[in-house]
Specification:
mainly beta, signal, globular, Outer membrane protein beta-barrel domain-containing protein, Porin
């Protein structure tokens, strides 16, 4: 396939078709969550107030196991970011989850998430711990995908869990000598692993 795309690009240079660049891509099985809430114990300003936004992106290898869709536990690690009340911060996390309620397409989970934080504005590092309750629906995907637009396109294969849900979270962090706590909620999503070829047309 890649040889065929490259040949097409070469021919396009001498035709009325636009030239293009083709490159392969691959992504691991991911879990993404994003939401908002309030942070207590951090000095806030009139511009920010106590509200904050939170995003994390993690790799969840057990999402690749087709026969483990009714599993009672999950693990992952990834990147986390918070901004809003007080200094922004980002870092790494590990997550362990148990699922006390599981059925054919839905499950409820309870997760613990140790976090390592860094605040660029204060140049300080710290640690944290979050407890999260999730409710989600999921399905296992093993399918090809493709899409095109005026600027390019992609073709590939997706394999793994896909899902959508809600979470409620309480967290504690201590960065430098300043402890604080957060209460937040938001959306969660699971994305299958993918591999494929992307094409960008050159104008």
């Amino acid at each position: 396939m890649h040889r065929g795309i490259s040949t097409f690009c070469l021919l396009a240079l001498t035709s009325v078709l636009p030239a293009c660049i083709a490159f392969p891509f691959a992504t691991p099985p991911l879990a993404i969550s994003g939401g908002g809430g309030v942070r207590y114990g951090t000095p806030s300003t009139k511009q920010t107030g106590p509200s904050m936004g939170h995003v994390d992106v993690g790799v969840k290898p057990l999402q690749l196991m087709r026969d483990w869709q009714k599993r009672r536990a999950d693990v992952g690690l990834g990147y986390t970011f918070e901004a809003g009340a007080g200094p922004s911060r980002h870092g790494a996390f590990f997550e362990g989850t148990v699922f006390p309620v599981v059925d054919q397409i839905a499950r409820i989970g309870v997760a613990a998430q140790p976090r390592l934080w860094y605040e660029p504005e204060t140049d300080k590092m710290g640690f944290g711990m979050a407890a999260r309750v999730t409710a989600e629906v999921r399905a296992f995907e093993a399918t090809t995908f493709s899409g095109t637009s005026s600027s390019g396109g992609a073709i590939g294969y997706a394999y793994g869990e896909a899902g959508l849900g809600l979470y409620l979270e309480g967290a504690y962090a201590k960065i430098g000598e300043r402890p604080n706590a957060t209460l937040g909620f938001g959306l969660t999503g699971r994305i299958p692993a993918t591999v494929g070829l992307a094409i960008a047309f050159l104008r």
